[in-house]
């Protein structure tokens, strides 16, 4: 009897773990849009720090990120218990913010000239090169800024994950939210550490002495790393922005029944095409979500800019 009870218990545990794994996989897919942007933003936050201080800064931000998750995950669980009706509005707000942030990145190229960006970069280089600058204070400011950025992105990840497990029992919610929080933090900052040291690794390989085939191969890999680091940053930024529109737009359209049914009907129609129907179904749904995300982001940016101008006028008067 005891053995049978143990087997039943193990079976229940396995079922729960299977449910948790499935929900975690879904949550990870839905938060992928934030992940690409998270990588690019945090890698950029570390730029301007001396090479030997890059990894300590990444570690300091990672610790701050864990603290953010320790605040956000219990808060999300409290909301799901005390006010579950808040989950959908929070999801919609999170989706709109994703679209706004993505469109703001695109609009930045038009709202700010290349000369302004060059001036800002030159100022950053001069700060790092100036021996009279308090680099400890400068580094601390970079860390604080990165942790603030992480808090916003972590909040988006937690809210999206909470929406995924809204109907699950409490223990599954705890497992999925905690799992996503840990995996995302370790994954993001592990990759950030690799990205910011990619150029140093390339330089190290290029400085290897010798002229044999193995050394020449290392020099080649080193050159690829040096040239590939900035390209990788740009790719992460572009992919992250596109994913933000897709995920944010998807959240918004799922929250608006008319829009959701419209996209679903178009995707189903595309899915009836012979041979390539499955691919067209996914592409149609993704493309329409991206379009919805871009439109929502544009409206949000116009609204924020308009509100900012009104606020400035009120302050002047």
Walk me through the topology:
Layout: H1 2-30, H2 32-46, H3 54-82, H4 87-111, H5 114-129, H6 135-164, H7 170-196, H8 198-206, H9 213-255, H10 257-271, H11 277-316
How would you sum up this structure, described in words?
The protein has one domain (2-236). It has 11 helices and no strands. The chain has helices at residues 2-30, 32-46, 54-82, 87-111, 114-129, 135-164, 170-196, 198-206, 213-255, 257-271, 277-316. The longest helix is centred in the C-terminal third of the chain and has 43 residues, at 213-255.
Any key phrases for this structure?
317 residues; mainly alpha; 0% strand
- Beta-strand content: under 5%
| Secondary-structure element pattern, one letter each | HHHHHHHHHHH
Number of helices: 11
Structural class: mainly alpha
Radius of gyration: 23 Å
pLDDT averaged over residues: 75
The overall number of domains is: 1
Percent helix, as a range, is over 70%
* Contiguous uncertain segments of 5+ residues: 1-25
Number of strands: 0
Largest sheet: none
> In one word, what is the shape?
globular
N- to C-terminal distance: 81 Å
Please sum up the structure shown:
This protein has 317 residues and is mainly α.
């Amino acid at each position: 009897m005891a053995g049978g009870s143990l087997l039943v218990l193990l079976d229940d545990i396995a079922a729960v773990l299977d449910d948790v794994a499935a929900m975690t996989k879904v949550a990870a897919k839905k938060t992928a849009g934030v992940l690409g942007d998270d990588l690019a933003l945090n890698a950029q936050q570390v730029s301007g720090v001396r090479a030997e201080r890059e990894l300590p800064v990444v570690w300091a931000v990672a610790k701050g990120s864990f603290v953010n998750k320790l605040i956000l995950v219990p808060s999300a669980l409290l909301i799901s218990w005390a006010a579950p009706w808040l989950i959908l509005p929070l999801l919609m707000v999170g989706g709109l913010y994703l679209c706004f942030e993505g469109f703001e990145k695109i609009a930045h190229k038009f709202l700010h000239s290349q000369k302004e960006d060059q001036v800002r970069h030159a100022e950053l280089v001069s700060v790092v090169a100036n021996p009279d600058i308090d680099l400890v204070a400068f580094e601390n400011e970079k860390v604080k800024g990165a942790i603030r950025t992480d808090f916003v992105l972590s909040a988006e990840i937690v809210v999206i994950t909470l929406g995924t497990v809204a109907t699950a029992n409490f223990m599954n919610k705890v497992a999925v939210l905690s799992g996503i929080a840990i995996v995302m933090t370790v994954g993001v900052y592990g990759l950030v550490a690799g990205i910011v040291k990619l150029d140093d690794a390339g330089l190290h390989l290029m400085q290897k002495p010798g002229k044999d085939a193995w050394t020449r191969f290392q020099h080649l890999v080193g050159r690829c790393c040096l040239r590939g680091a900035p390209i990788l940053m740009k790719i992460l930024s572009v992919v992250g922005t596109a994913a933000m529109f897709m995920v944010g737009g998807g959240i918004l359209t799922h929250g608006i029944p008319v829009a959701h049914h419209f996209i679903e009907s178009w995707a189903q129609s595309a899915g009836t095409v012979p041979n390539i129907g499955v691919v067209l179904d996914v592409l149609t749904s993704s493309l329409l979500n991206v379009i919805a995300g871009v439109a929502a982001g544009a409206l949000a940016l116009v609204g924020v800019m308009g509100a900012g101008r009104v606020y400035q006028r009120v302050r002047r008067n």
